[in-house]
Amino acid sequence: MGKFKAALLQTLVYEDKEKNVNDAVELIENAAMEGADIAVLPEMFCCPYSTSYFREYGEEEGGFAYEKISFAAKKSGIYVVAGTVPELEDNNVYNTSYVFDRKGNKIAKHRKMHLFDIDVEGGQYFKESDVLTPGRDVTVFDTEFCKIGLGVCYDIRFPELSRLMAFEGAEVIIYPGAFNMTTGPAHWELNFRARALDNQVYTIGAAPARDMDASYHSYGNSIIVSPWGNVISRMDEKEGYIIQEIDLDYVQKVRNELPLLKHLRKDIYTLNKNI
């Protein structure tokens, strides 16, 4: 058990991929110097959030963004959840999050499982499935602190996925995301509080900073919620970062006092992976 410090890096995203990556590296280094153990970047931190850019900015595993963030993790001696990047493989494009350990080694990889297709009257229209291919894996990785689950943005709306992560031992679930100005004010905090309560875990969400000159307006508001459902750290819409201590003993306290996961009626219903 014990404690660790998580840094949420809320970056602005420009059309200059190299600048986006270098800005992310600078924030990783700053967070590490302030004592963070793990840094979390936003969804599509290196690429404007538009289907027209995903293939153009995409790279195969081991590409420019991958190598730069891996090196930053090693140099700073910090875990990094590298937001997401457009990953190219076999002519497919995936919305992929890599995780690097303190030595810069890749220890996890999650391809966004649920693609964000939305058409709200008078609000946001977006269709990821025009370009992206969905992932198929439930992702949980080990650290010296605890097991950590990993999803991407829209994945948070599917409680089955987070419950499977909890079944695999996750005590923290991280979602790099990019909710917009239609879904963000309505559902961002609500989803993070709901998934934290469902599974008695910490939920962590890192989003891009808001740029009203961009084609896609991120809600920002990077957030950390406790296993009791309380928002314990939250940013506004501006660029920057915050560092929050995560007390893992509190996970066990909540689970002991209100043993939700022990009260599942597995004689009546079950949830299983099909792959």
Give short descriptive properties of this protein.
275 residues; alpha/beta; globular; 7-stranded mixed β-sheet; 6-stranded mixed β-sheet; Nitrilase/N-carbamoyl-D-aminoacid amidohydrolase
Explain how this protein is built.
With 275 residues, the chain is α/β, with parallel strands linked by helices. The chain has a single domain, classed as 4-Layer Sandwich (Nitrilase/N-carbamoyl-D-aminoacid amidohydrolase). It contains six helices and 15 strands. The strands form three sheets. Strands 1, 2, 3, 4, 5, 6 and 15 form a seven-stranded mixed sheet that branches. The protein has a six-stranded mixed sheet with strand order 9-10-11-12-13-14, with helices on one face. Strands 7-8 form a two-stranded antiparallel sheet. A hairpin with a 5-residue loop joins strand 13 and strand 14. The longest helix has 17 residues. The two termini are 31 Å apart.
